Amino acid sequence: MKDYFMGYARANGTYGIRNHVAVISAMDNSNFIARRVNAYVNGTVVVCPCFGRGEVGADLQQHIATLGGIGANPNVFAAVVVSMEPVIAGQIADIIRESGKEVVVCSCDECGGTIETTAVATRYAKNFVIKASMLERIKVSVSELMLGVECGGSDAVSGLISNPVTGMIADKLIDLDGRVVLSETTEWMGAEDSLRARAVTPELGQRIVDAIKWYEDYIISIGVDIKGTNPAPDNIKGGLSTIEEKALGAVEKGGTRPIQDLITYNGKVTHKGLTLMDASPGGVENTTSLTSIGCQVIIFSTGKGNPIGSPVTPTIKVTGNARTLETYGDNIDVDISGVMTLGTSLDEAAAVLYDSMIDVCCGRLTTAEVLGDTETAVTRLGYTV
């Protein structure tokens, strides 16, 4: 197994596994401009949020910080931010600029309508892509990686095969001095004692329990029975019977090493090893949040199948369910169903997944990247006003 990957050096001392020029829409009413630029310029990726206009307070700040964080991700070489107006776009660009990247803002107010804005943004994107093409990959220690781990469409096989194997990759990367981020807070309900026991301090353990309790209290406050929504219908169909069973399987993808920290959405990962992030479990929202804090690669364990990926952070889909290969085979990157059908050991499956992760970090494309099955969604905190 390699202890290095071939990546791109960034000015702020980080290393990317992709060399994207990101075309970022500052809000939903400029998404079509970003998509046009992406269609015109090969070598760009497009980041289009669901909202943006009419957000206020902490909700607006989270929107700005998330889009800025995506542009600042090590996988981005440079960014073009498009918008109706330049103020919010400028704040997003400021965050990207702080990471040492080139970034420009193209707004309809300043360029003069959507046609001129598209033209100006296209010229900038074209020049950035040409500059990016001159950068060469270099040998980088895996200790420079930050891996995000996620699961979706979970079934009974997830907790037996793909999540534990993903956790073995997390442990290996941590042992090589890398960083791993486990999020999806509501997926931890029922596994509180397990997570608390792994926290490096009692105070951290209590913070983790409190974060889970906040969601439990919120769900009760709006009169919803969590048992009716989690496990979800597809989870139940896949053999998961209780929220505790689902949680104990879900946290396995974070491995077994001590938990160093719990950060908020858009928080900074400041420790080597395993960090928990308090973030939404929704597939698109979670890949967005993992990308915004700087994860260069995501391993996404899926039971029944889930095609979604991040436009900026390669999202590796892995399954241990042979039936899923019959229905979602075109969307799966790593097949470890041999654990169930061929007697493959978990160690052997982990070696396959680790090698595949390194291949992706060296440039191999994921199915989501090739098919364009990528989306962005910033988690909302409030109403549009």
Description:
The chain is α/β, with parallel strands linked by helices. It folds into two domains: 20-132, Rossmann fold (3-Layer(aba) Sandwich), CATH 3.40.50; 141-371, Rossmann fold (3-Layer(aba) Sandwich). Helix content is 43%, strand content 19%. The chain has 15 helices and 14 strands. The chain has helices at residues 31-40, 57-72, 86-98, 108-111, 113-132, 156-175, 192-198, 202-221, 233-237, 243-250, 283-292, 322-328, 338-341, 346-361, 367-371, and strands at residues 4-9, 15-16, 20-25, 44-47, 76-83, 102-107, 138-141, 146-152, 179-182, 259-264, 273-278, 297-302, 315-319, 334-335. The strands form three sheets. The chain has a seven-stranded parallel β-sheet with strand order 10-11-9-8-12-13-14, sandwiched between helices. A four-stranded parallel β-sheet has the order 4-3-5-6, sandwiched between helices. Strand 3, helix 1 (31-40) and strand 4 form a beta-alpha-beta unit. Helix 6 (156-175) runs parallel beside helix 10 (243-250) and helix 7 packs antiparallel against helix 8 (202-221). It starts with a strand and ends in a 14-residue tail after the last helix. The mean pLDDT is 93.
